[in-house]
Amino acid sequence: MIKKFDKKDEESGSGSNPFQNLEKSAVLQEARIFNETPINPRRCLHILTKIIYLLNQGEHFGTTEATEAFFAMTRLFQSNDQTLRRMCYLTIKEMANISEDVIIVTSSLTKDMTGKEDVYRGPAIRALCRITDTTMLQAIERYMKQAIVDKVPSVSSSALVSSLHMVKMSYDVVKRWVNEAQEAASSDNIMVQYHALGLLYHLRKNDRLAVSKMLNKFTKSGLKSPFAYCMLIRIASRLLEDTEGGCVRARVCVCVCLCVSVCESMSVCVCVCVCLCVSVCESMSVCVCVCVCVCECVSPKAALRYAAVRTLNKVAMKHPSAVTACNLDLENLITDSNRSIATLAITTLLKTGSESSVDRLMKQISSFVSEISDEFKVVVVQAISALCQKYPRKHSVMMNFLSNMLRDDGGFEYKRAIVDCIISIIEENPESKETGLAHLCEFIEDCEHTVLATKILHLLGKEGPRTPSPSKYIRFIFNRVVLESEAVRAAAVSALAKFGAQNDDLLPSVLVLMQRCMMDSDDEVRDRATFYMNVLQQKQKALNAAYIFNGLTVSVPGLEKSLHQYTLEPTEKPFDMKTVPLVTAAITEQKTDIAPVATSKLPEKLTPSRQDIYQEQLAAIPEFGAWGRCSAPRIRCS
Amino acid sequence: MLIRDLIANKHTKSFDRRTPASNRFLSLLTPRWLRRNMDALILEPSLYTVKAVLILDNDGERLYAKYYDETYPTVKEQKAFEKNIFNKTHRTDSEIALLEGLTVVYKSNIDLYFYVIGSSHENELMLMSVLNCLFDSLSQMLRKNVEKRALLENMEGLFLAVDEIVDGGVILESDPQQVVHRVALRGDDVPLTEQTVTQVLQSAKEQIKWSLLR
What we know:
Chain A: Belongs to the COPG family. Helix content of chain A is 69%, strand content 0%.
């Protein structure tokens, strides 16, 4: 019996997570043993580990408890145990923001920074720079300068990286260390070179001449580090972008880097992306890059294949003809186990493919579209949309494919992308209208996104009456009126009204349906139904045109302002719509980026037009404000 | 067209006083769509390449997480992100994925999942080098026994190793030998008198196991 307990105890003691069920207060209580002498390094180490683990898990430490723990930890500097000291540095960095008076450890850290133990120097520098402010920085400036040019690479790297972090805080002080950084850049160690180059660029970012001189120097002397080459290529591209093709030196630099980095795969991908964006190197270099990418397409490492396919995708955007040669390799990648690679391969093929290969590609995509993530699905849909515009005769194949995708599960962005694609096909291709509208009707039967449902209903109202048999759409629309939420019901009522206005034979049935809608529970729906009933019953084309077909021609923020103004001033005469400024520019939807982006968290606000801004500014000036709103039309002055 | 653009832009754009006049003029000449596209494709040159380093266990729970920028500022958002990437990556065995607009390179071993996160325009191979460095250094420190229990018993080694590899989002070191050397952890040479009974029995069990395996 006792043996069994022992066994269970043993197993639970060694098998379970030693950090499970850690209580913050208990751990902080344990931290009191830091004050004991002599210091027990092993136990203190274990407790420090627990504290950092808690911080890592996102546990919140109040200022007082953090400060207490911090002060207790400072006593551990008396011990000479290496690991314990290193953990102390780490604790300093973790608690720098949550504890008060962290600068008391400055003297200990400075001592370690300039001491004999090389193992301590690098981490001490990094910890010191996390707690330093501008005034203290000037005091340790001398030590930092020595550290940057130190022979030990870890010390030099730490000093350079810490200087970079401090550029944000005190640029002027760090700028004085440029010469030391320059010296460090000629070091043999690849990481030191990389850090030095990065620091030099950050310090000279605003001075284009200095950047181009630096670029020139490094291109001539050559670099050893692949990381540094990536950085150099990006700097050169930035310089080219700023000078608009004027800087010959930057061009030369990029070409040299291209030749060198063909041997090193890391730089190639950056290089190619950059070259294409800035259109520096012409077709020959593009071919070289593409060849290298193709070689990497068959690499066993997934990351290389991914990088290669992504680069080919970017090439295809500008030079589709260059990528056609790689189509065979890309088709092999479609069946790749990594779905991201497969999707990118397919979208590249869609950009460069011919009309005959479209059917085959569609079949291949449909086989795996259910397995890829939402963002990639959106990318694929956008590629299909571009393809539809290129080959309008293939619209039936695309439409089938898109409707199948619409039936599958997916997020809002994905469904919206598909709906937009179908709508664009309908708008461009009159032959596809019937099938497209039929698919969309089927979709709204079971759609949980109000925005999409209202959009489709609006489209049905616009396009439906013009089709040969509009009556079949009425059933779908009326189902929406009965079954859905208020916003959708209101949109359905508006759509019904449009049907009634355009088709005289459907008018009596529409009026009957409107009668039903007037009893709806929501006031918006009732108002709309009553309004449309009254307009339709007049049976006058002019009225129909004015109130049912054409939407609001004034800008909505302008209307809101005018109404507000009207309510403020008591007048006898009724509100005149003509005083509201018209919408000047048509609102066109921006084409979204091809690369998948994180879904935006802020709702999009309706921005007021320029006229509204001017009006507001004018009204602010008392002399103009007294004259009321500007209602005269714009006249050209001279 | 150019002059009208210039005049119109004066009303809506506020110029940064530090950029020289020539820069301003040239940036107006570049059409906005080109600038926007170029910004999207060229990343601003910077040493800050890593956004986060994560280690999750078999259930997607966080064992270690270090975020180097404000992409996910609160703990709640971080945990949601971790859950999301775990769901999308723990079934497949591929090394790289693009999720939530970020490049994620990952590796799994027995019951641990290692992730390195960077921006979508970041060089994937750089992120892979960070991941490989982390994995290889841990592998050496844990004597090739990279699994959850061993990791939890050596958390201080993990903390120090990550501290040596990435500092504030900047890649500090990419050679695992150097990292192990700098972490300089001593072995478990705890004197017998300080250990508890269970620890002694545990170390005895380990020794017997290793001798049998040999």
